[in-house]
Specification:
The chain contains 3 helices and 5 strands. It has 135 residues and is of the alpha+beta class. The protein has one domain: HIT-like (HIT family, subunit A, 2-Layer Sandwich).
Length: 135
């Protein structure tokens, strides 16, 4: 994709702070610099989001996520990692190249990354009937 920011980063046309790279994936610091060590993990092959990424590419991305997450906890002094993804405009995806956010966490860091949602009022039984995947 000629106009994709993340594809330009992979090609070296836009600078980045590379954390990790292999044949299939690229990981770099998020320029928002909003959380210590906020990393983006992307596939080198362009896809828009989880919904259109083939399983093989997604498996490579997830393998890289696990590798970096273990590194952050085992080698860098963090206690845990948040792994976040938005797939689709309605899910607040802002760059339309598949990416996962890794937020390294330390106990007491006071980051609040999960939204506080109110109950929606619909019964779980009804939701389950509507969403269940039949074999």
């Amino acid at each position: 994709m000629n106009d994709c920011l993340f594809c330009k980063i992979i090609k070296g046309e836009v600078p980045s702070y590379k954390i990790y790279e292999d044949k299939y994936t690229y990981a770099f610091l998020d320029i928002s610099n909003d959380a210590n060590g906020h990393i983006l993990v992307i596939p080198k092959k362009h896809s828009v989001n989880v919904l259109d990424t083939d399983e093989r590419e997604l498996a490579h991305v997830m393998s890289t996520i696990k590798l970096i997450s273990n590194h952050l906890v085992n080698e860098c002094g963090f206690d845990g990692v948040n792994i976040l993804n938005a797939s689709g405009e309605s899910a607040e995806q802002s760059v339309f190249h598949l990416h996962f956010h890794l937020l390294p966490r330390k106990k007491g860091d006071e980051l609040h990354v999960f939204p506080s949602l109110e109950k929606n009022g619909e019964s779980l039984e009804e939701i389950c009937k509507r969403l269940k995947i039949e074999e």
